[in-house]
Amino acid sequence: MKHSRLDWRGICAAAAGIAMMAYGICRGEMKVVLEKAVNICMECIGIG
Questions:
Q1: Whether pTM exceeds 0.70
Q2: Rounded distance, CA 31 to CA 36, Å?
Q3: Tens digits of per-residue pLDDT, 22-35?
Q4: In the chain, what are the domain boundaries?
């Protein structure tokens, strides 16, 4: 019994994470994160 309760908690946590990622994508946050990642990468390489 104890093992199945932990499975439901994990499934609920995964579902909440997926829902939050979908909400962020709908708000356009993916573009902002990608731009920041590119800027950081360019600074580390020394191009930017």
A1: no
A2: 9
A3: 999 999 999 999 99
A4: 2-37
